[in-house]
């Protein structure tokens, strides 16, 4: 395919938070262009957003149904190739399903849906249609997260015993949803957010990061959810003990009332021989701690010689020379670039490389929804451990 992939958007208008980040990430490598959108629940805002983004007025639609239907009727050479869905959680499933059924690939925000049933239906739809679905678990796009995963996989730390993953934020320490914050309002509303606020909004990121870096699946868990802020309808803090498939044990903390915190995602993994530490607030560093050795600091973009050579997954996802900071936007762009390369390769009848296929998919989305369900079930019930059932 000697052209850019054509993107449509559902949500992400001038009234939205993460939509603009998606556009920066999608455009960073020059492989994707925006051709259409149903950018907002408010038609005026959608229209104005389309104008601001130089989208042809006839391709700014009043609803995602209209967009997907009308785009599917356009000639092959014009119609969008994929849809990015950046709406509140309850509005992920329907546009994703419709888009897949009409032959479009999909990029969708996490949590993928608001129930395991919906998530499984999307999985079935992806498998039946052969389309590609990418789920934007942002933190898995960083080069040093890829390096961490590669080192665990090659056995650098020996058998993994302990996984500690944290995602504290402080922005919901007050009743923000009643202070005119639209993003907080839908997140704290069970009808629009799902069964859990904290686990849907950030706990799934942490659970995905733990499974992604360790390469291990969560098998059972024991959870404690709390609503600290009076008047709030959903939980805003959670602590979860995890048991992984190889016998490793873990701790996951996700909290939105950790006053003063921003997006302090951090993961530590320990094996028989040593461990690693990576933190979102210092994303170009990977700290390696081996038994009886001084600490090592791996940094993005370095051409270290053996045995410190960075993995092909880390270098494939690095954009700037060592010493120049990379961050969230590049990590997000890595997810888009790998998705775009996979979609293009599939359309050309080629097999994408393992590095190109390295982005979260519908299967991660199903696990994310099962994680939320299992946490809520365990928190509400009396059993000590609840099996992670898909
Ligand atoms: P937001 O409230 O800021 O924006 C939501 C957008 O969706 C708005 O433009 C709104 O008008 C639009 N919308 C609502 N209903 C619509 C409809 N029927 N048709 C078209 N547009 C519609 O929300 P946000 O903070 O941008 O979050 C959106 C999604 O992204 C959520 O699922 C959230 O969990 C996820 N998110 C992910 C990350 C990440 O790190 N990956 C970060 C922030 C948000």
From TrEMBL:
Domain GFO/IDH/MocA-like oxidoreductase: 145-277
A Pfam family annotated for this UniProt entry: GFO_IDH_MocA_C3
Membrane-spanning segments: none
Gfo/Idh/MocA-like oxidoreductase N-terminal domain: residues covered: 5-135
Superkingdom, natural source: Bacteria
Name this protein carries in UniProt: Dehydrogenase
Organism for this UniProt entry: Sphingobacterium zeae
């Amino acid at each position: 395919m000697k052209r850019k992939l054509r993107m449509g958007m559902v949500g992400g208008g001038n009234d939205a938070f993460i939509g603009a980040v998606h556009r920066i990430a999608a455009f960073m490598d020059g492989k994707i262009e925006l051709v259409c959108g149903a950018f907002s629940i408010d038609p005026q805002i959608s229209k104005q957003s389309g104008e601001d983004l130089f989208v042809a007025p006839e391709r700014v639609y009043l609803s995602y149904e209209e967009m997907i239907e009308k785009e599917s009727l356009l000639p092959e050479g014009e119609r969008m190739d994929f849809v990015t869905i950046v709406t509140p959680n309850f509005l992920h499933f329907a546009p994703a399903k419709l888009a897949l059924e009409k032959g479009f690939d999909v990029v969708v925000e996490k949590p993928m849906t608001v129930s395991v049933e919906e998530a499984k239906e999307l999985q079935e739809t992806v498998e039946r249609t052969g389309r590609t679905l990418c789920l934007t678990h942002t933190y898995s796009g960083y080069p040093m997260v890829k390096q961490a995963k590669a080192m665990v996989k090659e056995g650098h730390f020996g058998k993994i015993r302990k996984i500690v993953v944290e995602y504290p934020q402080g922005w919901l320490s007050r009743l923000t949803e009643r202070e005119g914050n639209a993003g907080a309002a839908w997140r704290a509303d069970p009808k629009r957010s799902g069964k859990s606020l904290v686990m849907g909004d950030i706990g799934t990121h942490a659970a995905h990061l733990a499974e992604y870096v360790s390469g291990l699946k969560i098998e059972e868990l024991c959870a404690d959810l709390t609503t600290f802020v009076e008047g709030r309808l959903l939980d805003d803090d959670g602590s979860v003990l995890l048991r992984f498939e190889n016998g490793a044990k873990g701790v996951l903390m996700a909290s939105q009332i950790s006053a003063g915190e921003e997006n302090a995602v951090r993961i530590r993994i320990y094996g028989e021989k040593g461990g690693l530490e990576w933190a979102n607030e210092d994303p170009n560093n990977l700290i390696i701690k081996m038994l009886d050795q001084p600490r090592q600091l791996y940094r993005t973009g370095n051409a270290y010689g053996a045995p410190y050579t960075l993995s092909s997954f880390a270098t494939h996802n690095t954009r700037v020379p060592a010493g120049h900071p990379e961050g969230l936007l590049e990590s997000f762009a890595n997810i888009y670039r790998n998705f775009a390369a996979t979609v293009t390769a599939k359309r050309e009848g080629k097999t994408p490389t393992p590095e190109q296929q390295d982005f979260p998919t519908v299967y991660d989305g199903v696990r994310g929804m099962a994680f939320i369900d299992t946490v809520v079930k365990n928190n509400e019930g009396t059993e000590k451990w609840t099996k992670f059932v898909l």
